[in-house]
Amino acid sequence: DIQMTQSPSSLSASVGDRVTITCQASQDISNYLNWYQQKPGKAPKLLIYDASNSETGAPSRFSGSGSGTDFTFTISSLQPEDIATYYCQQYDNLPLTFGGGTKVEIK
Amino acid sequence: QVQLQESGPGLVKPSQTLSLTCTVSGGSISRVSYYWSWIRQPAGKGLEWIGRIYSSGSTNYNPSLKSRVTISVDTSKNQFSLKLSSVTAADTAVYYCARVRVGYPTITFDIWGQGTMVTVSS
């Protein structure tokens, strides 16, 4: 199985801050990576696919980059409604696997 | 718009079989380029992919659960189902059904059900 390692596991930032989350794959996965947002008590929501493409309806402050084994998810200006846990997910190989998640809180 | 809704017992006894159904509304489960998947999440933990099915009945399972999992589809009812046998407390989780959008090579979980909590306890 391809292991996905996210860091940090949690972070606290102020409204308006730039927030960056990293995801590292245990092997080269090209750009076969998605990012999801999960708010408390809710199902995950797709934000970014193919490492850097924004899903329809996702706010423009969310972006992704990277390829190979190292990926980055960025919130350009943190908003109160962005409080959530963010997950990366690879689809290079089955089984499909997720990172452990990054919990984002407001300082 | 397509919506997914999980249903099934919220409490299952150890060693028994967990059975859940996902009903798809607003679109056909037989639509080309979509698979249908189950994912679970223990309380306070991350997401684990269980498996997926195509409308033809073709399946793929997570090897960690493969010996205990069966996913099936009923296109006449626009539903797909999960059976997980010989459950233990470790199978206690929120179970989500999700639509899998396939774009070759893109594979995304683009629509999710709200999730259903299943507790394994005597």
Defining traits:
heterodimer, A: 107 residues, mainly beta, seven-stranded mixed β-sheet, four-stranded antiparallel β-sheet, globular, B: 122 residues
Note down, in words, how this protein is organized:
Chain A is mainly beta and 107 residues long. Helix content of chain A is 0%, strand content 50%. In chain A, strand 5 and strand 6 form a beta hairpin. The relative contact order of chain A is 0.35. The mean pLDDT of chain A is 97. In chain B, 0% of the residues lie in helices and 53% in strands. Chain B contains no helices and eleven strands. Chains A and B meet through strand 5 and strand 10 of A and strand 10 of B.
Summary of the model, kept short:
The complex is a heterodimer of chains A (107) and B (122). Chain A is an all-beta fold and 107 residues long. Chain A has strands spanning 4-7, 10-13, 19-25, 33-38, 45-49, 53-54, 62-67, 70-75, 84-90, 97-98, 102-106.
